[in-house]
Every structure is written in C-alpha cells, then in structure tokens.
Fold this sequence. Notes:
The complex is a heterodimer of chains A (435) and B (481). Chain A is built from 10 helices and 20 strands. Chain A is α/β, with parallel strands linked by helices and 435 residues long. In chain A, 53% of the residues are buried. Chain B is an alpha/beta fold and 481 residues long. Chain B contains 12 helices and 25 strands. In chain B, helix 3 packs antiparallel against helix 9. At the A-B interface, strand 19 and strand 20 of A face strand 23, strand 24 and strand 25 of B.
Amino acid sequence: MSDLKELxxxxxxxxxxxxxxxxxxxxxxxxxxxxxxxxPTVKHEEWKYTRISxxxxxxxxxxxxxxAVTTADVDAVRLPGHEAANELVFINGIYHAELSTIRxxxxxxxxxxxxxxxxxxxxxxxxNNLGHSAKYHTDGINAMNNAFAYQGLFIAVKxxxxxxxxxxxxxxxxxxxxxxxxxxxxLIHVGVNAQVFxxxxxxxxxxxxxxxxxxxxxxxxxxxxxxxYKIQNEDSHSSCxxxxxxxxxxxxxxxxxxxxxxxxxxxxxxxxILEAPGCESHMYGLYCVKGETHVDNHTIVDNVxxxxxxxxxxxxxxxxxxxxxxxxxxxxxxxxxxTNAYQSNKNVLMSxxxxxxxxxxxxxxxxxxxCSHGCTVGRLDEEALFYLRARGVGEKAAKAxxxxxxxxxxxxxxxxxxxxxxxxxxxxERLGFxx
Amino acid sequence: MSEMLxxxxxxxxxxxxxxxxxxxEADEAPPGLNEDIVRFxxxxxxxxxxxxxxxxxxxxxxxxxxxxxxxxxxxxxxxxQAIKYYSAPKQKKTLNSLDEVDPExxxxxxxxxxxxxxxxxxxxxxxxxVIDSVSVATTFKKQLGEMGIIFCSMSEAIKEHPELVQKWLxxxxxxxxxxxxxxxxxxxxxxxFCYIPKGVKCPMELSTYFxxxxxxxxxxxxxxxxxxxxxxxxxxxxxxxxxxxxxQLHAAxxxxxxxxxxxxxxxxxxxxxxxxxxxxxxxxxxxxKRGICAGVNSKISWTQVETGSAxxxxxxxxxxxxxxxxxxxxxxxxxxxxxxxxxxxxxxHIGKNTRSRIVSKxxxxxYSHNSYRGLVQVGKNAVNARNFSxxxxxxxxxxxxxxxxxxxxxxxxxxxxEHEATTSKIGEDQIFYCNQRxxxxxxxxxxIINGFAKEVMNQLPMEFAVExxxxxAISLExxxx
Lengths: 435, 481
C-alpha cells in the first residue's frame, strides 16, 4: 500500500498547489487525512464488503499526459444522442477543452477550471460547497481526491435556464501503455429555476489496469430540476470509486439513475442532503452483473429540514461469480418532521457462486415521520416461470422476460430518450434475449 | 396531539419499582481483576483443576482484547478494576430444603413476586434464583430429577456433572468470542445448568431469576442449556437490580444446544435498573446469547422483552447448522428517559432448508435511543434457506431516536430473504378513532402500544406475558394506563 502513498506524495511534491483560499485548504486537509487514514480496509465499516485495497495494490502511474488521445478515440465511445448534447471529455482525470463540444451558449452554461471559479463570480459558491462531501466520507479515498481537487472543473447552470442540450461527461482513462489512476473532480452549480440533464460514463482505453476515483458535488438551488444518469459498462481491469454528492439548498427535485453492467470493483457513493423543507429526491439503481464484477452501492439520504420526500429503489441481478453490495442510509434529523422516506432493495441471484450483501439502514431522530425500508434476496418466481413455460415460452426466454420486467421498473425512470433506448439495448444484450 | 405529548412526557416521572436494597450479608471478593481473583473465585467454589485452567485461559485472552466500540451507544468507560467480581449471600451451611433459606432473602423474592414456596409450586414453575452472582435456591429439583432432567446451579453442575459441562461449556460461545464473553468465562460465579435427556418433554417451565443486590458488584452468570435428541424445554429468565447511583455491569453468557428434533424456547423479561430520569446509574447489560441447532429438525426460539438497563447490548443468535432447523427471534425493546439499547439477532444459515423468522419491535420515548442491529447470513451450502425479518419502530416524543442496522449476506441463489422495516409514531387518526369511541388519550395510547407489541407478547408463556405487559405499562407510565 505504501506504493500508492508514495505515488500520491510524489505527485504532490511535483505539482504543489500554488494558489490559496478554499482550494488550498481542502487540498491540505485532504493530504493530511490521506496520510492518517490510508486506503480503507474491510475493517472500516463503510468498506466492510468491498476490498478496495486489492485493486489499488497495483503499479499505477498518475498520468497527466493526454496527448495520445485523439478525436477518433472519443468518437468510438460517444453515447447515443451526443449530436444534441454538450460533451465534456476528461482525460486521465483532467478536463480536455479541445476534445469537448459545448453546444449551449455561455448565458446558459458556464464551464471554468475550479481554480478560476474560486476567484471570480462563483467564489462564494465554491467556498461554501466544495469539499462538503468530506463531512460524510472521512476515509482516505475521498481525502485522496480532495488533495487534488484544485485540478477539477466547475460547471454552472445559470438561473432561470433549462439547458436544452444534456451534459454528457466522459471520464476517460488512457491505459493503453501503462496502468492509470485518475481523480476527476467536478463541482456543479444549478441555479434557481434551472433544469439540467447529466449523463456520466467512465471509459478505459487499452488493457492495463485503470482506477478512477471521482468526486462530483452538485449544488441545487430553489425550484431547480436535475437528472443524473450514470452508466457503468467497463472491462474487469477497470475499477472505480464514484462519489456523487447532491445538496438541495431550496425546494427542488433531483432524480438519479445508476446503471451497472460490468467492471472490476465498482463503488458508487450517492448522497442526497436535503437542506431545505419540501425537497424531493429519487434514487434508482440497477446492477445487472456477472463474471467477477463487484458492485457496491452506498447511498445516503440526509433529511435535515421538514416535509421532504425521498424514494429509493435499487435492483440487482447477480450472475456467475459477481457480488452485489447495497448499503442505504436514511437519516432523519431532529427538525425534519413530516419526512417521508422510502427505501427498497431487491436482488435476484442467478448462480450459486453469486453473492449479495445488503444493509438498508435507518437512523431517525424525529417522531412525526413515515419511513420504511425493505429488502429481498431470492431467485425468480418458480410459479411465474411455470406459467410462461406452460404457455410454450422457452426456459431461456421465460427467464429473460421476467428479468426484463424486473429491470424495466428502473429503466423507465430514465427520462432522456436516447439514453433510455441505449440502456434498454445493453440490458437486453446482457439478458441474452431480444424481444 | 399536544395533550398526548404531555402525557407521554410524564413517562419521565415513572419510577423503578424494583429498586430496593436487601440487607443480606454478603461474602465478597475485593474489587479488581487479576489472576488471583480468578483463582479466588474458583477456590471459593471448590472447583476442579480443569475449570480453573479454563477460566485462566479465558482471562489471559481477555487481557489481549479490546472493548468493542461499534455499538450505537455511548457510555462512560467501565473501570474493570473497580468492580467486585464475587459477591455471594453469606450462607452458614449447604441448604437442604427451602425452609433453610435466609428469611430476608425469601422476603426479597416474595417482593419480586417470585415465591420459592408453595404458591409457586401450585403455578408449576421450577425456579433457579441467582442473587448477586450465586444461585440461592432451585425448586422442583426432585420432581425434575425423576425424569432425568438436570436443572441446577452451574457450580453444582461443575461438581456433579463434570462430563456434561466439560463437553458443552464454551461449545457455542467460545472463550475468545468477544470481549465480554471472555470476561464472563474468566469470572462467572454461577448460573443455571439445564440438561434435558433424550426424548423428554419438560413438563413445566424452567425459570431463572437474576438480581444484583450488593453495591459495586458486577453480575456474571453463565447459563447452559443442552436439549438432547427429541426433547423439549421452555426456559424463562427474569432480572432486576436495586436502584443505585453508580453503574453496574451485567455481562452474562447463555449457551443453548439443540440436538436432532429438539426444541428450546428461551424467554427473557429484562428489567434491570435503567438509571434515573437524568440517566444517572443503571445497569450496563452486555450479554452474549447464542444457540446452536446442531441437529436436524431442531428449533431454537428467543423471545425477549427488554424494558430495563441503562445500556443494553445484546444479540441472541441462532446457528442453524442442522438441516431443516428453525431459528426464531421475537423482541420488544422499550427505552425511556436516557436509556440506550442496541439489540437484535444473528441468524446464521448453514444447513439445508433452514428457516428463520425475526420480529423486532422497538419503542423509544423520552431522550432514549433504540437500535435494531441484525445479521442474516446464508452460507454457500444453505440450500432453500428462508428468512423473514420485520422490524418496526415506534417513536413517542420528538427527542428520542430509532435506528435500524440490518446486515444481510447471501451466498446461495436458492435462498429467499426478506427484510421489512418501518418507523412511525402513533397516528393522530388512530388516537382520534379511539377518542371518538370514548377512550381517553392515555388508554388509547396503551391500547395501540399493546397492539404494536402483541405479535411478540403472544410468544411469551402465560405467566411471563402478564409480567411483561405490566412492565411495558410501568416503563411507559403516563402513556400507558
């Protein structure tokens, strides 16, 4: 593990942060915490089921060289609907302006390096929000990203603007020559009455090991409407830890769909901090995994103020030697009376070597609330299968049909047409049956 | 609603009913813990050499272990050197019959409603009473003996049935299992031992009654129940302690072994002193309870009503090793004032077609915190394992907390595991409905709470159910009529 520490320390000494203010403070604290905590082991309650040290114990380089990536390389990985989207390309963790295409006008969408945003008009936004996720993640992984947050990107959606072109973010690791570790960082500010769609995908080029430790913080102002879609479909040598931290500062609506198909170790941290009365949050997830893929979804809903509503539904189809982990936390603080919070996790195990570890957790400090959670682990309903078989549907088709229905409940939550079509297509391919 | 809140807040006024101290002369060890104390306890009890070795092994392990910090409770560190590890009511000679029991002691039990004499014989419950750390009386021994059932104090069992004790003691909860079980293994002073031979259905409820009396003592009792092939026993445990300003430590270990086709039902009504309304004093209840369904078709069922203790930390568990075995856990945990409870269960599915059911009801009032923490684990070979868990929490008042931490780990695709949890308060519409039909708010709350806990109460044996209902009422006095 000392290798990684050395790597981080070398990087820090080579490129010390020269600015000051919020970014410097965050970087300093990040380095300090990382040195104290190191990489979490399975003894860490938050990492009990995910042995992240295993994937980090490799000979990574902290590449900054992005010159090898061409437009043709990016063309190969673009998502459907990209013709009408703003495309933001990150190479090895750093935003690459030349490869990116911004279609929205500057009075709708502002894109700035964090280091610049911290000085100008958005100074207070950066100061008040950057690093807020560290309050919820005190482990070395989050700290490691904080140390380099000054290399991140700031995105602002101006108030009263509904951005027509969705934001497609490609986080590309160029692992064609050697193993790459990267740490993208974004802070997204969605202004009053604004609306935006975010689509995020991690991509590894080449066959060497790749690790992406990404932190995205999203600040949502009053009456804003935000949709966040994540697609994870990589090779087994690509692992990642992704933290999406959403602060809802005014009455607003945010919905998130996370789709996982393939990868090495995939850890998704998704936090919703409902800091205003009357917020609405939806969190959906589908993990349809096989092979040796290990997917871990950790979610937090922190209800700080009264009258909020949150709904969470995560579904898993786990085959072969794959492992699914779910940990959902709902906090209801003392003042958050009249909170309605629902959480559900459903898993289907398809093989005897697949496993699932789930921990839906409630911590409630207010009395006038309605909170419930449920979780199930099982296999496909024998009777439903029999019903289909009795009507002449083959076994494989019958299973696929049932799994389709199971997955469909999540897929239909994707409101962006081309992305939903794409998601349905890759899920159909995975289930091995076209209808 | 405000009316209801005030009645609920009056709960703080309810006092601990069992808080008297009995002036019984006690034979005590000096405070502190070292190898000499372990030897002292062992010598006091005239134990054989193997027992002393076992204790010393546990003690040496304990020294290497650390206090667990993961439970969702906060309490001042326990000073293990300030506790007296042995306190026995002074006895002049071995007792032959109940009539020779210290009259003051008998009065204590009568106050508790545990009469050691005729009344209880009529109700047909065999009682083993443990005061401070020593078993003082066992009733019905003779009648049970005729059926081959052994029901006696642990010290007696060590002397008279060493082969059984040696075979089973520590087989379910190993010496090194956890910090408090290691401590218990080193210093346990007494407890109950129960052995049901092959094919015997125990005709009466067996019962243990625990009471901490002397000041500055800890209670470390050890219970071992072995149910041989095809046998059945229902076992009850109750506890109280006097009201004292300092915290007292109770670290017990209960082990249950159920062999082929055997069934053990273990019910607890725990009412240790919870501390006063400011949270001063009270018992720290750090208990390890575990049963193993070692044989096929065996069944272990835990039922608990937890109303007492300042801090409770216990997870009665079942290891479902035998094929077709069944584990059950029914719990009502009530916390009030400054009480904290972190309680739940573990169901470890190892054998084929094993089933488990968890029903946990938490009621929090005042400033208290009530956590459910449970583990359901389905191993690779546990084909067709089935689990259903339900944990509901009821919050009375806006200063308390309810928490749920269920861990579910499944490694077999044929398993079916379900978990359900809800948290809510008593609905205004429910209260209104009752009010409309002429029930005052207080009675309505009582009615609703009783209904909430009923699923668990129904599992308790008759005489315990009555006591448990009373306890619920006392713990939530002001809100329950």
